[in-house]
Amino acid sequence: MWIRRIVAAAAIFFPLAALGQTLDYVEEDPTFETGARVAVGLEKDIIPKTLAIFAEEELRVDDNFSHLQKSYTDLGIEYKVAPWLKAAVSYTLIANNSVSKGWYLRHRGAFTLTETIKSGRMKVAVREKIQATYRTDSVNLYQSPKTSWALKTRAKISYDLPMSPYTPYLSAEARFLLNGVNPEYFVYDSIDKRWTNPDPRYNDLYFTRLRITAGSTYKTPRRNSLDFFVVADLSYDLDIDFSSKGKQKKDASYSSGYAPYLFLTNSYFVGLGVTYTFKL
Questions:
Q1: How does DSSP classify residue 250?
Q2: Strand, helix or coil at 224?
Q3: SS3 state at 133
Q4: How far is CA 5 from CA 9, 134, 251, in A?
Q5: What is the C-alpha separation between 228 and 279, in angstroms, rounded?
Q6: Which helix (H) or strand (E) holds 263?
Q7: Angle subtended at Cα 215 by Cα 209 and Cα 217, rounded to the nearest 5 degrees
Q8: What are the beta bridge partners of residue 213?
Q9: For every one of its 280 residues, what pLDDT tens digit does the chain have, with 9 covering 90 and above?
Q10: Is 22 exposed, middle or buried (0-12, 13-18, 19+ CB in 10 A)?
Q11: Do the strands 31-47 and 262-279 form a parallel or antiparallel pair, or are they unpaired?
Q12: In terms of Cα–Cα distance, which of 13, 36, 4 is closest to 185?
């Protein structure tokens, strides 16, 4: 895998490579699951064609349609800067339903810019979103920051069918983590013969997900819209697993006496979705 080659090459530049020590990591088997996304939204113009507020409630079901994983409560305001450019700010309350932890909350703030180009019945929209997500549950700061920053870049192309209320579309979105824990600053303890993270640095930037969505929007006579789609998420991550003291965990089942702590994970999700939006 290309991820394996990148990590192996990067180990050359880590601080204690000269001592013959390299960072241990495990590439886990990929996981695949299916699910659904259902959402209801509201839109209201404050200044016609210029300023609008919006709200949306979304439920996400995973584990092959058997587990309610998350709910997203989204509130925001959107301003049309120019006929081709919109800016928006939003707040999202995320309720996570973990099998091990139960329900817990996260708070997310986001700023979005969307540029739209129209040519005949064809429309191309490019969206840039930067977001910060704050975790309310306990966090091991040696493994991840309390607030994570991400950049999402999405390109969407749609076509307004003549004499039809349907508008089919296709989009692709890439997500980048902006402040992951950087393994470059891990230190090898020659006495304990294990790796530690004495001074966590949250400056690792890497690609984490590609989302591809294909669907169609149906416009109702009252300006409301019904959106049907299929979504595929291809997710990649560097999962760090240190003890609460920032040290590689002991595990006698390994010849070194310590468990691996860097895991390269990848998962694949395919889901069906529907969103109904009321325009007030």
A1: B
A2: coil
A3: strand
A4: 6, 32, 26
A5: 17
A6: strand 262-279
A7: 125
A8: 171, 231
A9: 444 334 433 433 344 333 345 677 888 999 999 999 999 999 999 999 899 999 999 999 999 999 999 999 999 999 999 999 999 999 999 999 988 788 999 999 999 999 999 999 999 999 999 999 999 998 999 999 999 999 999 999 999 999 899 999 999 999 999 999 999 999 999 888 899 999 999 999 999 999 999 999 998 877 899 999 999 999 999 999 999 999 999 998 988 889 999 999 999 999 999 999 999 8
A10: middle
A11: parallel
A12: 13
Q: Which residue has the tokens 């697993």?
A: 241
> Token match 């002991």: residue?
250
The residue type at 108:
R
Q: Give the integer Cα–Cα distance in Å for 54 and 278.
A: 10
Q: Are strands 122-135 and 31-47 parallel, antiparallel or unpaired?
A: unpaired
How far apart are alpha carbons 171 and 215 in whole angstroms?
9
Judge whether 264 and 7 are in contact, CB under 8 Å: yes
> Rounded to whole angstroms, what are the CA distances from 241 to 12, 20, 24, 214, 244?
21, 22, 11, 36, 9
Report long-range pairs for 66-71 (Cβ below 8 Å, ≥24 apart): 67/97, 67/99, 68/97, 69/35, 69/96, 69/97, 70/94, 70/95, 70/96, 70/97, 71/95
Residue 168, amino acid:
P
Distance CA 192, CA 248 (A): 10
Q: Which amino acid is at 184?
A: E
What are the tokens at 164? Answer: 């039809």
Instruction: List the structure tokens of 84.
Output: 């081709």
Residue 13, SS3? helix
Tokens of 261: 């702590």
